[in-house]
Design a protein that fits this description.
With 411 residues, the protein is of the alpha+beta class. It has helices spanning 13-22, 47-55, 59-63, 100-114, 163-168, 226-230, 233-244, 246-255, 297-316, 322-347, 354-363, 367-378, 383-386, 389-399; strands at residues 2-7, 27-31, 73-77, 80-84, 117-120, 122-130, 133-141, 147-156, 172-176, 180-188, 194-198, 203-209, 215-222, 257-258, 263-265, 270-273, 276-277, 280-282, 288-289. Among the domains are: 2-43 and 99-175 and 268-344, FAD/NAD(P)-binding domain (3-Layer(bba) Sandwich), CATH 3.50.50.60; 180-265, 2-Layer Sandwich (D-Amino Acid Oxidase, Chain A, domain 2). The chain is 38% helix and 25% strand. Strands 1, 2, 5, 6, 7, 8, 17 and 18 form an eight-stranded mixed beta sheet that branches. It comes from Actinokineospora iranica.
């Protein structure tokens, strides 16, 4: 009998398991994959997420893999350019974009070292219930016999297609249609650093360095253009770079070499899903998913995985009732993630609304507010502070923006 069974051992599941096991709880983690293994991902970890890795004692292990430190970010939105970096957050003065073959193995290792039992290559086929309450899981490792494991709580950390969410009947309650798709791969021969550049129609390029001397190169386009793009991925990919930043397109053609197959991300709609019920909880993309545009998936998995582990510990140790603890987990996650969710859904359309155009255009003319912008990106400045009407008024005054161009609210 386990205190907690976690289904899914990547960016949300392993931290939950590790943090609970460190507090003495008996934890089982299962995953249908074996590690190291790859998965489709943005790779990007914001400073707010890296600060969690640091507090868990895992950041040094990530850095030791040789993944490059990034200390300058370059953004452009249809003629608006912003370059810089945020102030340190809890001592973290860089960002990193590790391969998932690297990151996830470190996270799984952290869970094991903490005392959690980990079964790799295990496919969950059902969630067990007694008297309306989740009490365990059923599944099998490879072609082996079907097995059952029992627990006080079952946590679904198994991504957007969560089997746990399906079996417990978790419902969606906030859905925003997906705007685009991504294609990416890994290239050698380039030294570009970190770029997110949107332009020449509704499309974007992204570049960031990762492990083994490679750069992840990505494009985003509207969903309606997926079929057209897929008909000639190599040519279409090159075309987007040529159109958005011609000089980078020329260098990609002359110096870049694709080292691995293309990875498509035709992601589902943005959503929140009911994430707790009798004997179960959801974390990571299983319960809350947004467009990869802002790269907050891994960081939010860390942040709210830690919140869930804290609340489960309080309930399992008798400090508060389980239902109360889970309600608080949902409240914290939904309130703290709402601003990022809304901003992401808006920017993912690859065109700025009048409000964001005014704010970002003015920000690009103010060194102080540009610094604050990168603090917002990093997770060190709250959106309510950055977009506060009083602060925007000071910004507009500073840069001399005409009164008829000033906007104070997204609506």
């Amino acid at each position: 009998m386990y205190d907690v069974i976690v289904v899914g051992a990547r960016c949300a599941g392993s931290p939950v398991a590790m943090l609970l096991a460190r507090r003495g709880h008996r934890v089982l983690v299962v995953d249908r994959s074996t590690f190291p293994s790859d998965t489709v991902s943005t790779h990007y970890i914001h400073q707010a997420g890296l600060s969690r890795l640091k507090s868990w004692g895992l950041l040094d292990k990530v850095v030791a893999t040789g993944v490059p430190a990034i200390r300058k970010l370059n953004f452009s939105y249809t003629g608006i350019s912003l370059a810089g970096f945020a102030d340190p957050i809890e001592g973290v003065d860089a960002v990193y974009c590790p391969r998932r073959t690297v990151l996830d193995e470190i996270l799984v290792g952290g869970a094991r070292e903490a005392g959690a039992e980990v079964i790799e290559g295990f496919t969950v086929t059902d969630v067990l219930f007694e008297d309306g309450r989740a009490v365990g899981i059923r599944g099998r490792a490879g072609d082996g016999p079907e097995r059952e494991f029992r627990s006080t709580v079952v946590v679904g950390a198994d991504g957007r297609g969560s089997i746990v969410a399906e079996k417990v009947g978790a419902e969606f309650y906030r859905v925003v249609p997906a705007a685009g798709f991504i294609y990416y791969s890994y290239h050698s021969g380039l030294d570009w650093g970190m770029h997110h550049r949107t332009g020449f129609g509704e499309q974007q390029i992204g570049t960031w360095p990762t492990n083994d001397g490679l750069n992840l190169l990505a494009i985003i386009r509207g969903r309606e253009r997926f079929g057209e793009f897929r008909a000639d991925v190599e040519g279409s990919f090159q075309e987007v770079f040529d159109q958005v930043v011609p000089e980078m397109g020329a260098e990609l053609r002359s110096k870049g070499k694709r080292e691995e197959p293309w990875r498509p991300m035709r992601y589902p709609d943005n959503y929140y899903r009911t994430s707790a019920g009798p004997g179960w909880a959801l974390v990571g993309d299983a319960g809350y998913h947004k467009d990869p545009f802002t790269g907050w998936g891994i960081t939010d998995a860390f942040k709210y995985g830690e919140v869930l582990a804290d609340r489960l510990h309080e309930a399992l140790s008798g400090e508060r009732a389980m239902d109360e603890a889970m309600a608080d987990y949902i409240k914290v996650r939904d309130e703290e993630s709402s601003g990022t969710f809304e901003l992401t859904c808006t920017l993912a359309k690859l065109q700025l609304t009048p409000f964001y155009d005014s704010v970002f255009r003015a920000t690009s003319q103010s060194p102080a507010y540009t610094k604050k912008f990168f603090g917002l990106i990093a997770g060190g400045v709250h959106g309510e502070e950055f977009f506060a009407p009083g602060h925007l008024e000071e910004l507009y005054d500073e840069v001399g923006m005409p009164a008829d161009e000033r906007r104070y609210s997204p609506s």
